[in-house]
Write a structure and sequence with these properties.
Structural class: alpha/beta
Radius of gyration: 18 Å
CATH superfamily: Glutaredoxin
CATH architecture: 3-Layer(aba) Sandwich
Number of helices: 4
Helix content: 25-40%
Distance between the termini: 56 Å
Strand order of the largest sheet: 2-1-3-4-5-6-7
Largest sheet: 7 strands, mixed
Length: 145
């Protein structure tokens, strides 16, 4: 039985929407040109399916401020993904969870540079939290690591 033109159109639309749904999330990272751990975090994201673009900036705190992330939550790099801001060494799984759940928030932050976080691999990791950051700067724990 031959497919009708409308059937072809429907099949093409379904195929293109399936391809769009599986497209990797794009992450835009603002980092110091001299920071090795930032490169490690970027590689962690790429290994977990993200498409990453990096921008070397001389003033990471200024980039962070421009995106609205409170300085007290700062780390060595700031990123944008899916309308959210991501600060510091946030695990890819937490970003994937954020993008799936889509909470009303500014984004995620892992303040400082905890040993054992992605890009900060260490033989002596320490427990740390990923924080969900609200537009007013308030936070709550999003994930324990």
């Amino acid at each position: 039985m031959a497919l009708r033109p409308l059937s072809y159109l429907l099949a093409a639309l379904l195929a293109s929407s399936a391809a769009w749904a599986t497209a990797p999330a794009e992450v835009e990272v603002f980092k110091s040109p001299h920071c090795g751990c930032c490169k490690g975090w970027v590689e962690h994201l790429r290994q977990n399916g993200f498409k990453v673009t990096t921008h070397d900036v001389n003033d990471v705190p200024a980039a962070r401020a421009k995106l609205g992330m409170p300085d007290r939550l700062g780390s060595c790099h700031t990123a944008k993904v899916g309308g959210y801001v991501v600060e510091g060494h946030v695990p890819a799984a937490d970003i994937q969870h954020l993008l799936k759940e889509k909470p009303k928030a500014l984004g995620l932050a892992v303040p400082s540079m905890p040993p054992g976080s992605p890009g900060m691999e260490s033989p002596k990791p320490v427990p740390y939290d990923t924080l969900l950051v609200q537009a007013d700067g308030s936070t709550r724990v999003f994930a324990h690591h």
